[in-house]
Amino acid sequence: xxxxxxxxxxxxxxxxxxxxxxxxxxxxxxxxxxxxxxxxxxxxxxxxxxxxxxxxxxxxxxxxxxxxxxxxxxxxxxxxxxxxxxxxxxxxxxxxxxxxxxxxxxxxxxxxxxxxxxxxxxxxxxxxxxxxxxxxxxxxxxxxxxxxxxxxxxxxxxxxxxxxxxxxxxxxxxxxxxxxxxxxxxxxxxxxxxxxxxxxxxxxxxxxxxxxxxxxxxxxxxxxxxxxxxxxxxxxxxxxxxxxxxxxxxxxxxxxxxxxxxxxxxxxxxxxxxxxxxxxxxxxxxxxxxxxxxxxxxxxxxxxxxxxxxxxxxxxxxxxxxxxxxxxxxxxxxxxxxxxxxxxxxxxxxxxxxxxxxxxxxxxxxxxxxxxxxxxxxxxxxxxxxxxxxxxxxxxxxxxxxxxxxxxxxxxxxxxxxxxxxxxxxxxxxxxxxxxxxxxxxxxxxxxxxxxxxxxxxxxxxxxxxxxxxxxxxxxxxxxxxxxxxxxxxxxxxxxxxxxxxxxxxxxxxxxxxxxxxxxxxxxxxxxxxxxxxxxxxxxxxxxxxxxxxxxxxxxxxxxxxxxxxxxxxxxxxxxxxxxxxxxxxxxxxxxxxxxxxxxxxxxxxxxxxxxxxxxxxxxxxxxxxxxxxxxxxxxxxxxxxxxxxxxxxxxxxxxxxxxxxxxxxxxxxxxxxxxxxxxxxxxxxxxxxxxxxxxxxxxxxxxxxxxxxxxxxxxxxxxxxxxxxxxxxxxxxxxxxxxxxxxx
Length: 745
What we know:
Blueprint: H1 6-12, E1 18-23, H2 29-43, E2 51-56, H3 59-75, E3 84-88, H4 89-99, E4 111-112, H5 115-132, H6 149-173, H7 178-187, H8 193-212, E5 214-215, H9 217-230, H10 232-241, E6 242-247, H11 255-265, E7 271-275, H12 291-298, E8 302-307, H13 315-329, H14 334-339, E9 366-368, H15 375-392, E10 398-402, H16 405-417, E11 422-425, H17 430-447, H18 452-462, H19 470-484, H20 490-493, H21 500-503, H22 510-529, H23 534-545, H24 549-568, H25 574-585, E12 610-614, H26 615-618, E13 623-628, H27 658-671, H28 679-700, E14 703-709, H29 722-741
Helix pairs in contact: 2-3, 4-9, 5-6, 5-8, 6-8, 6-27, 7-8, 9-11, 13-29, 17-18, 17-24, 17-25, 18-19, 23-24, 27-28
C-alpha cells in the first residue's frame, strides 16, 4: 500500500484545475502520479468512453506507469487497464492524427519513418545538395582546410547533415514549411547563406517524405497541433474523452508539446504536470526547454507544488547536489547564471518514520579527487577501487558513469583485464562491437582492395579465434606487419607475374604458409562476392570468420539491418556500409536490434557487478556506489577561455558553431531581426555549459551510499571542470569544519 509523505499528500489532495509539481531526484514522482491516477479513477464518475490520460516521455515509462496504476486500482477493487490511457507524447500525437488524417493533409495509410530512416533520407538530400554545390564548403572551412579534399567532402557533409537536421527540427517546431521559409528568405533584406542552404535541403527532405507518404516524429507533433486547431469539434470530443491529463517528465517538453496538452486540457480543464527542471539533460539544439515547466509552475492560475524529499541518497550526497544548485545560482559567468541551469527546490531528506529512509550517512564515502590523472591512470585507479569495493560488497550495486560512449568502451577494457564482472549499458556491448568491427574491417578492405594496411587488418580478423593464444598473437602481429609492407596487394590476392607468398616462402613455416594460402583463397572469394546484395555479402563473410553461435546471430542482425538501410538508401556502396559499421563498432551510434533496451535496465538485477553507462542513460537509475569520471573542462566546459566545445569543429573558420548560426538565421527570418555572425556560437557555448551542469547534477544524484568523482587531462591539455573545482573546494572546507568541531583528544 502506498504511504505518502506529507509533500506527496499535498499533491494527492489535487482534484481539479491546473497543477505543476517540481520534484527532486528520488522523490517518488512517478509513484505519486500513478497513485493520483488510481485515486482519480476511484473517485471520478467517468462518462462512457471517458479516460484519464497519462503522458510520459519514453516507451519504457509507459509500461512502468501502466503497471503502477494497475497495482493501485486493484487495491480499490477496480478493473486494471480500464478508464485510463498511458501514452508517450509521440504516441498521443499519432492517436490524434490517425483520428483525422485528412485534417493533417495525410492519406489514411500514412507511415511514420523512424530516426534511422529519417537520417537516411536527410543524408540523400545533403548528398544531392553538395553535389550541386561543390564550392559551398569554402565559405565556412578554415583557410588551411579549404584545399584538403577530405574536409571539403566527408567532414563538410557530416557537419552539414547535423546543421540541416537541427534547422529542420526547429522550423517544424515553428510550424514553418519549406515554402514558408523560402518566402521569408525572398523577403529578407540581407544574405543568410546557411538558412538558404538548409532551406533547400529541407525542401528536398520534405519532398522525399511526401513521396513515401510518410511523416517523421517532428511532423507528428506539428500535425497533431494543426488538427486540434483546425478541427474544434474533434478537439471538443477529445476534451470530453480525456477528463484529466497527467504529465510526467514535463521538464523535457517542447513548446509544441505543451500547446498540444494545453489544447486538450482546455480552459478550466484538469492538467497536472510533474518534472524536475534540474534533470533536463536533452542534447543542445533539441526543441525542448526546462523553462517551459518552470514558467508553468509559477504562472497565475496554476497550483505550484514541490516534492523535495528523497530517500535515495545519504545526506552527504544530497548536500553535495544541493551545493551544486547553490553554486550555479551564483555562477561566476553571468550569462550562465542568467540561464538558471539549476534551480530550487533543494533536496531534503525523508521525514522521520518514512518507509524509504535515507541510507546511513558516511561523509568518508564521498571522494572528490584533485589529482590530474591521465585517461589511462584514471581508468586504472577507478578499476582498482571497483575491485576492492566489489570484494567487500558482493551484493552491492556499482556504476561507472561516463560522458561519452567511447570513454565507456575504454573503461570496459580495463575492467575485463582486471577480471571484474561488468555490465555494459552503452550504445552496444563489447561483444556486439567486436562482431560489427570485424565485419566493418572486411567491408572496408573490399571497398579499397589495393590497400595493404586494410588487408593486414582483415588478416587479423581472419585469425580472430587465435587472439587468446599468446604465442599466436605474436605470430599474427608479425604476419600482419609483413602484409602491411606489401607494395602491390595483387601479388598476394591475385598473383600473376609475381607471387608474394612465394617471395616470403623462406620466412614462414609450413603451417603459416598454409594459413596464408587459405587466407588468400577466402579474400579472393570475398572480392568475387562484393557485388552481391549487402545482406548476402555479410552472411558470406560471417560464415567464414565466426564460429560462436552468439556471434553468428549478431552477424545475421547486422545483415538484416544493412539490408533495410540499403532499401532506404539504394545508392549506398561498401564504403558507406563500412563507415556505418565503424560508427557502431566505435560506440558512436546505436541501432535497433543490436543493443539492450535501456528502458528495461534494472541495476538491482546486476548485484556484484559494475555497470558502465553514460550519464544520459543513468537518468532514472540508481546504484549503491557511483564513480563519475572524466569530469574535465572538455566534457564539462563552463564557457571559460580555455574550454573546448564539441559543437565547434576545428576545421570550421572562426570557431563557428554552424548549427547555432543556422538556427539564429532562422530566428532572424521569423522575427525580422538582424543576424550577427559569431554571436549565436557564443550563446551556444553558454547553453551547452548550462546543460552540462544539469548532467553533472544527474550523475551525483544517482549514488545511494558512496560517490567518487575524478577527472583526467585527456590528450594532455584538459583541466579540472570549473564546477568540480568549486564542489571540491567547498567539500574540503566542510570536512575541515567537521574536524574543527570534533573534541580534542
